[in-house]
Amino acid sequence: MKVKQFRNVNGYTDSAASVKADFLRTGRKVLKAVGKVLAAKGYTEADIRTNKAGIAVSGEVSADFFKPGEPNGIWLQWSESGVGGGGASILYRWTARREDGKHTETGPNQWLSVGTEVDIDKLARKTAEQAEKRPAFTGKLC
Q: How do residues 84-97 score in pLDDT, each as one tens digit?
């Protein structure tokens, strides 16, 4: 899926706020596309949320995907990275179902930097692998 490149997303001016709104729409579109592929793999329970956040930041779009009756699923988040050159990034990990609106048990973070294209099938496959393998954080950072 082709996507725009985004840098320094914020809402300080009217034009910047327009870019921020486009950034969040794009993130929702990407996560919905991932959800379609995951639904074909049995992850038919989906919840996609948008957090516009404050004026100084990009905001984010996050999503949970679960197979019916399964305790573990997938969590993804589209946001702007503050690391390196910035730009859009996707964070994903396995997660247990939410309790009282919060994730209580999750796997290690996995990051995907977004350029001008997102390989939706690859992203769906990698996220599903995380949910099925359910790897634990080893404590090693490198």
A: 667 899 999 999 88
Q: CB neighbours (10 Å) of residue 114? A: 21
d(CA 67, CA 43): 4
Q: How many residues does this entry show for the chain?
A: 142
> If you search the block for the tokens 């949320």, which residue do you land on?
49
SS3 59: coil
Domain parsing of the chain, residue ranges: 14-133
Tell me phi and psi for residue 125, to 5 degrees: -65, -45
What angle separates helix 14-40 from helix 120-133, to the nearest 10 degrees?
A: 60
pTM above 0.85, yes or no: yes
C-alpha–C-alpha distance, residues 93 and 127, integer Å: 7
Of 112, 101, 80, 110, nearest to 1 by C-alpha is: 112
- From CA 62, how far away is CA 92, in angstroms rounded? 9
